[in-house]
Amino acid sequence: MFIPNNFKIEHEAEQIAFMKKYSFATIITVKNNIPIATQLPFVVNDNSDKLILTAHFAKNNEQVAYISKNTSLVIFTEPHAYISPQHYDKVESVPTWDYIAVHAYGTAKIITDEEAKINALEQMILFYEKDYLQQWNNLSEKFKKGMMQGIVIFELEVNELQGQKKLSQNKTKEERQRIIHQLKSSPSKIDNDLASYIQDTL
């Protein structure tokens, strides 16, 4: 993606932390020169020397046929908000949008080993709702097997990360404080979260 220098996320650790926090992302793959996409919850694993993203498709999703043949792009983004020019000192100003986004590129590998598939699902349970693991363990093997047959689990090894946080860094401290005040006053949690990120740039 196009990233102006003053909006670039320099440190990989910061990018990975963002991916873990906002882990419901969009995976995009090319099919016959046409991009196709699916929104999925991901588990982000950086416990080794590799960065691995794990998720699963519904078995009938056509994207399954292309993720191991082509590079995929996974887009992590949130929070974001409209920024009004009323906050700026100059009258000759225009509206904009503040946001954070991380793009992860890599080629996926479909997991076929049954034990590895179960392990991947359990890692997802532990990440999103660890209290559900006991219920999962008590489910019948017949139910689990039927459910597993309906999904395709994959791992994507990330070979490139790009990160951008456009948080009005090109504005004065006073202008950013006015933006923060409005976002904090908003009933939207997304606006409130963005305000905290902008606050960190001061």
Key phrases:
single chain, 202 residues, alpha+beta, Pnp Oxidase, Chain A, seven-stranded antiparallel β-sheet, 6 helices, 35% strand, elongated
Secondary structure blueprint with pairings:
Elements: H1 12-21, E1 24-31, E2 34-41, E3 43-45, E4 52-58, E5 71-83, E6 96-110, H2 114-129, H3 132-138, H4 141-149, E7 151-166, H5 173-185, H6 189-199
Antiparallel strand pairs: 1-2, 1-5, 3-4, 4-7, 5-6, 6-7
Helix pairs in contact: 5-6
Could you write a compact summary of the structure shown?
This protein is α+β, with helices and mostly antiparallel strands. 33% of the residues lie in helices and 35% in strands. Helix 5 (173-185) runs antiparallel to helix 6.
Main pleated-sheet profile: 7 strands, antiparallel
Looking at CATH, which topology would you report?
A: Pnp Oxidase, Chain A
Helix content: 25-40%
CATH architecture: Roll
Shape: elongated
Spatial arrangement of strands, main beta sheet: 2-1-5-6-7-4-3
Structural class: alpha+beta
Question: Which band does the percent of strand residues land in?
Answer: 25-35%
Tell me the Rg in angstroms.
20 Å
Count, helices: 6
Strand and helix order: HEEEEEEHHHEHH
Low-confidence stretches are none
What is the terminal separation in angstroms? Answer: 25 Å
Q: What's the number of extended β-strand segments? A: 7
Mean pLDDT: 95
What is the total number of structural domains?
Answer: 1
CATH class, anyone? Answer: Mainly Beta
CATH homologous superfamily grouping = Electron Transport, Fmn-binding Protein, Chain A
Molecular structure report:
It is built from six helices and seven strands, in the order H-E-E-E-E-E-E-H-H-H-E-H-H. A seven-stranded antiparallel β-sheet has the order 2-1-5-6-7-4-3, sandwiched between helices. The protein has a single domain, classed as Pnp Oxidase, Chain A (Roll), CATH 2.30.110. Helix 5 (173-185) runs antiparallel to helix 6 (189-199). By secondary structure, the protein is α+β, with helices and mostly antiparallel strands. The model has no long low-confidence stretch (mean pLDDT 95). The protein is elongated and about 65 Å long.
